[in-house]
Design a protein that fits this description.
The protein is of the alpha+beta class and 759 residues long. It is built from eleven helices and 48 strands. A hairpin with a 2-residue loop joins strand 1 and strand 2.
Length: 759
């Protein structure tokens, strides 16, 4: 196997594009059979070239590549792994794998004649803008159709292009660099110009058709970061879908988006789960027939960017994936206290300020797949200090609910579910059962119960044992090797318990944000500002460490990021996210911290990832679930599932944990969950320890056996065929999982339905 010169400490990315054909409204559609024959001929020529040595074939691409040109794209730079070609007129790219001869392009090479002028321009453009003009944000500008001035300067590693749309008086500088791993595409913030008064920039997309393909002309898939990960196959979708995948990195922005109308049963209970949010700023495309793939990483600008994954048939007949950066948005400004009376549509007066950068890591051969993408992302994170090695072995997560509140004649009354002594008793019983490796998050430990938030001091509920008893429990747990963490939602504030006149988030339209709980005791929560979160958390940490309690689980701020207004000043998602990152960096230096579903920008500061989704949002466009994030983190950071006791199909959920290397989680109470019926925790329908003791023991025994076999190893391959999954670890261990309804044979092994084999 030929080794590549890879330097993950100095990452950069790159891609490819083909020749262009000017838009002709009545252009006829070429015969696809002929195109396929020509494509097969071209692939055969490339194979012969690779076998005989580059530049020695009669194939046009290989011959022209040797001469420094492919399809009107001239060679700009090359290294041991890749060669970059650019068309200076259109700024389209072709990136060529020097080992295999395979290429990827940034513009379409086949025109089916079915796209209108606007779409055709986008498909052949290096930069696509949406613009804001009055109340209209539908107008598009690109580098193919519009009158632009360009100054292209070649550099030792690529090129820069100063681009200016003369009609719209908008401009920016595009920087493209080839690296050992692929390429980077960047727009410096200071280069973005808005010189006129009629048009402003709404969004910016960079090389949105890089790696695109027509209909089912390529074999492979689009990788999208929905939940743990999902694939959209590059097959002919036959026009079934009118929309694709489009989601904000790190979740939606409550500063702009209206509260969604939820589907409720009896106006109380949610019957449809919320969609999963993007946890890591990544996307990808794999051409499995060419054995060439890329992973796109949004390095700069990710806090206000979207990932788009569009299968063929969504507006055009081409498969594509890209990042779309948001510079400005509209918001709705009510004109009176009654929002139904009237409102105005207003755009942000100031655009976002951040460099925009996407890094593309290219992969070939056996790594040109989603598992290779996950491995490359892991290597990238470790090399750049964005992830640290913390996994020291298998533990079962057993969380406890201390107390909540129910409505009483006057005020509320405590509902005590699990005291400090109760936890001691449960620990002792689990030890007798052989369950010794434990991690615990104690929720509702604070005076006033789980929803007495925010928490700014270490003062425990007296009916649970009080502050002293909780401190002793934490010390005892540490002596027994148990990870013990107090839970803190550092985002929300309960208006029934605290004054919400100050330090509370308002949306950009100056209206206070309210989160509806659909519960009886506490009907709404508000969000506190990042400054208030910082102040409260620092006070809590000071109190805890003074009493030698050093385990903290942070939630809320770890999975939310938003624009907001406070004191007459507008704050961006960048300011919000950066404030949280700085706060949690400081907290990490002071105590042992785990986080609930943290965004990737926080991974370096958590000892474990809690509540990893093992599924996706199940959008109709998704063809396959893949445990991408679990592959990234397995063997590096402990990853814990969402709660087992809330899963409908526990057998499948158990196999998902086996497949992904995820550790199990249980939410436990000493008392029956029926005690919670009149509290905000009434959605905990089954939690009593006596109900789950055997299940905890069984899961701990079975999953520990599997995880001990792969301790210290990472996942190097993940393959799916006919409902059977084969997972390969770096130490040579293989795990087979059969999700089918009948027995399956693979690698000389026979798997019973809904079972696994450790080999």
């Amino acid at each position: 196997m030929t080794e590549r010169n890879i330097n993950y400490a100095a990452f950069s990315g790159s891609h490819k594009y083909g020749s262009h054909k000017r838009y002709t409204p009545n252009a006829g559609r070429p015969d696809r059979t002929l195109v396929r024959i020509l494509s097969l001929t071209l692939v055969l020529a490339m194979v012969l070239t690779a076998a005989a040595g580059f530049g020695k074939s009669d194939g046009r691409i290989a011959a022209n590549a040797a001469a420094g040109e492919i399809n009107d794209h001239k060679q700009v730079t090359s290294n041991g792994n890749y060669t970059l070609y650019v068309n200076d007129e259109t700024l389209s790219l072709i990136i060529r794998d020097n080992l295999t001869g395979a290429t990827m392009e940034s513009s379409i090479t086949y025109d089916d004649g079915e796209s209108n002028k606007s779409w055709y321009g986008a498909m052949n453009s290096a930069v696509v803008l949406t613009m804001i003009n009055g109340n209209d944000d539908s107008k598009q500008a690109n580098t193919f159709n519009d009158m632009v001035t360009k100054k292209v300067t070649h550099t030792p590693y690529g090129f820069t292009a100063d681009i200016y749309w003369t009609k719209y008086k908008l401009g920016l500088t595009l920087e493209v660099e080839l690296t050992n791993e692929g390429l980077t595409v960047r727009v410096p913030d200071e280069s973005i110009r808005e010189d006129g008064t009629d048009y402003q920039i709404g969004t910016i997309s960079l090389y949105p058709y890089l790696g695109s393909s027509y209909m089912d002309d390529k074999e492979g898939y689009i990788f999208i970061p929905d939940g743990n990960g999902a694939l959209i196959y590059l097959n002919d979708k036959e026009g079934r879908y009118k929309s694709g995948y489009s989601s904000m990195i790190y979740g939606h922005d409550i500063g702009f988006e209206d509260t969604k109308v939820e589907s409720l049963l009896w106006d109380k209970y949610k019957i449809i789960n919320s969609s999963e949010q993007i946890i890591a700023p990544v996307f990808g495309i794999a051409h499995t027939d060419d054995k060439m793939a890329y992973l796109g990483i949004v390095e700069d600008g990710s806090m206000r960017a979207m990932i788009e994954g569009m299968p063929n048939g969504v507006s055009v007949n081409y498969n594509r994936a890209y990042a779309k950066f948001i510079e400005r948005k509209y918001y709705t400004q009510p004109t009176s206290n009654n929002s139904t009376v009237g409102s105005l549509k207003i755009s942000e007066s100031e655009r976002s300020h951040s460099d925009l950068k996407v890094r593309y890591i290219f992969l070939s051969g056996d790594r040109a797949n989603y598992a290779g993408m996950a491995g490359a992302y892991r290597e990238y994170l470790l090399a750049n200090g964005l992830l640290k090695q913390t996994d020291d072995g298998f533990r079962t997560r057993v969380d406890f609910l201390g107390s909540d509140r129910e409505q009483w004649v006057i005020g509320t009354s405590a509902v005590v579910m699990t005291t400090a002594d109760d936890i001691r008793g449960i620990y002792a019983d689990l030890k007798e059962r052989g369950v010794t490796g434990l991690l615990t998050v104690y929720k509702g430990w604070q005076k006033g119960g789980i929803y007495n938030i925010p928490v700014s001091k270490f003062k425990a509920e007296g009916k649970l044992g009080g502050t002293g008893e909780i401190s002793r429990l934490a010390a005892e747990a540490a002596d027994s090797g148990i990870g013990f963490y107090l839970y803190d939602d550092a985002l929300r504030i309960n208006p029934s318990e605290y004054n919400v006149t100050f330090n509370v988030v308002k949306r950009i339209n100056k209206r206070k944000y309210e989160e509806n709980t659909h519960k009886e005791v506490y009907k709404t929560f508000n969000y506190v500002t990042p400054a208030r979160s910082t102040s409260d958390l620092k006070k809590l940490i000071k109190n805890m460490t003074a009493k030698n309690v050093t385990g903290l689980c942070v939630a809320g701020i770890t999975s939310n990021m938003f624009s907001y207004t406070y004191g007459g000043t507008n704050y961006t998602r960048y300011q919000c996210g950066n404030a949280y990152a700085e706060l949690l960096e400081t907290a990490d230096e002071q105590l042992d911290m785990v986080m609930e579903q943290p965004g990737a920008y926080l991974w370096k500061n958590t000892q474990a990832f809690l509540d990893m989704p093992l599924y996706t949002s199940s959008y109709i466009i998704e063809d396959e679930f893949v445990p991408f994030l679990s592959i990234v983190l397995k063997g590096v950071m402990p990853v814990y599932s969402e709660y087992v006791n809330f899963e409908a199909n526990r057998q499948e959920f158990f196999l998902k944990m086996i497949e992904s290397g995820t550790y199990p989680s249980f939410y436990i109470t000493k008392e029956s969950s029926s005690e919670l019926i009149y509290t905000n925790s009434n959605d905990i329908y089954s939690s009593a320890y006596e109900t789950y003791a055997d299940t905890i023991e069984e899961y701990a025994r079975e999953l520990k056996k599997v995880n001990d076999a792969v301790k210290g190893a990472v996942i190097t391959a993940h393959e799916i065929k006919d409902g059977v999954v084969r997972v390969t670890y770096s130490n040579g261990v293989k795990i087979y999982v059969n999700y089918g309804e009948s027995a399956a044979a693979i690698d000389g092994l026979t798997l019973e339905p809904m079972s696994y084999i450790l080999d």
